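ARCHIVE CARD
CATEGORY: sequence design from structure
SOURCE FIELD: tokenized fold
FIELD CONTENT:
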């Protein structure tokens, strides 16, 4: 009985100490006012300084007119913010094999980088990576879901 009482007391003290520590740390959490300073952000969640994700047609890495328009806007943002570095992430929908989609995602990311470099952004400010079909935005199995996942998004890696 004495052991049970001691264990209960120890557990109560531990929980109290944890809750007090948590409350003390709350002052360090990002707020809406400083959240932009505390995260690098990405275009999929709208936190990449205005850079916008672009989308691709099925089984292609060709930039269509809409994608080129978005990329032209993204280029201007990077020209205005010359210290910013980005990573272009290439993505595919869930169809097809892993290796095929990794290669296609890389072609998509490289097509975006080439466009940006051809339009005045220094190549050393842009890295590329492919996630293939491993990071879908929409796990659905419809054409609408697939279209959301065929994309190149932008991650701020350095300000």
């Amino acid at each position: 009985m004495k052991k049970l009482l001691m264990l209960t007391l120890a557990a109560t003290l531990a929980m109290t100490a944890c809750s007090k520590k948590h409350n003390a740390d709350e002052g360090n959490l990002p707020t809406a006012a400083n959240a932009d300073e505390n995260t690098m952000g990405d275009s999929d969640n709208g936190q990449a300084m205005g850079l916008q994700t672009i989308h691709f047609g099925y089984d292609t890495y060709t930039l269509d007119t809409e994608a080129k328009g978005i990329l032209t806007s993204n280029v201007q943002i990077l020209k205005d913010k010359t210290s910013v570095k980005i990573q272009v992430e290439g993505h595919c929908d869930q169809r097809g094999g892993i290796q095929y989609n990794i290669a296609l995602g890389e072609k998509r990311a490289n097509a975006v980088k080439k466009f940006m470099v051809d339009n005045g952004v220094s190549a050393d400010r842009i890295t590329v990576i492919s996630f293939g079909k491993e990071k879908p935005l929409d796990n659905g199995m419809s054409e609408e879901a697939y279209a959301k996942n065929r994309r190149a998004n932008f991650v701020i890696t350095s300000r």
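CARD ANNOTATION: Residues 1-30 form one domain. Confidence is low (pLDDT under 50) at residues 1-39.
SHELF: design records, drawer C
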